[in-house]
Amino acid sequence: MSFAVAGDKYDRFMGRYSRELSPRLIEFARVEPGMAVVDVGCGPGPLTERLVERVGAGSVAAADPSEPFVTAARERAPSADVRQAAAEELPWEDDSFDAALSQLVVNFMRDADAGVSEMRRVVRPDGVVAACTWSYADDMQMLRGFWDAARRLDSGAPDEGSQMRYRTVEELDELWRRVGLTEVETDHLSVETGYTDFDDLWEPFTYGVGPAGVYLAKLDSEQRDQVRTELFKGLGEPTGAFTLTATACAVRGLA
Ligand SMILES: C[S@@+](CC[C@H](N)C(=O)[O-])C[C@H]1O[C@@H](n2cnc3c(N)ncnc32)[C@H](O)[C@@H]1O
Predict the structure, then answer these.
(1) From atom 27 of ligand 1, which residue's Cα is the shortest distance away?
(2) What is the pLDDT of residues 119-160, one digit of tens each?
(3) Tell me, what DSSP letter sits at residue 52?
(4) What are phi and psi of 157, to 5 degrees?
(5) In this structure, how many other beta carbons lie within 10 angstroms of the beta carbon of residue 121?
(6) Which residues are 133's β-sheet partners?
(7) Rounded distance, CA 25 to CA 47, Å?
(8) Mean pLDDT (whole number) for 53-72
(9) What stretches of 78-186 show up as alpha helix (H) in DSSP?
């Protein structure tokens, strides 16, 4: 399981982007103070923490199947009701929330139709169901750079840019309408994150997080070094601090 890692390792890999993305998703979803909200696939809680700030303590719930992430999310958002559960079987009654949000998760759900239907079920009629996923193909520089490097060395390497599901606003729009959500709207949310140097980017790839980390873990140390060198070259051989950008596809609908 590629998300059975400590929360701080996830933070250095993807959490640094999630922290920037969370306020953008909250704004896009139009989450207002006082609303009861659930964060589906919360990971170690970057969005959960922001939701607590936005709607107030006691109004936020969250779920994730990964045990270490649930532990981290409970530590970071102690007032939130964090459960270990998958989107496809949310442990809450019908109509429990005003909004259900899911950040960078729909593409990892075992059954996205079932997962988003569950988000719809736990939200009251006319409540908000919103999510975002990376626009993997071109606009997520970190993963684009990694898979380009891997595929220059191994043409059989997977490529999240062409293989990941739900990586366009069109696919998300279709999914939202298919599960019966109404007034569906989509947008792109762009963020950037800074790295102190190339190792600040490279080391988290070796933690085994997500598809890139899992792929790298299967290589021997010589092959890993080759990917590192290719990624370094592909990013223009940065010598000091640098910044990478990422764009997410966002979707919002009403239950
Ligand atoms: C890329 S992380 C995103 C975490 C967090 N939402 C964020 O913004 O950083 C993907 C998350 O989806 C979770 N996940 C995987 N399958 C899931 C499922 N079927 N239902 C809910 N969450 C799932 C993983 O455990 C992981 O925490």
Answers:
(1) 43
(2) 999 999 999 999 999 997 778 999 999 999 999 999 888 877
(3) H
(4) -65, 145
(5) 17
(6) 249
(7) 9
(8) 95
(9) 112-122, 141-153, 160-163, 169-178
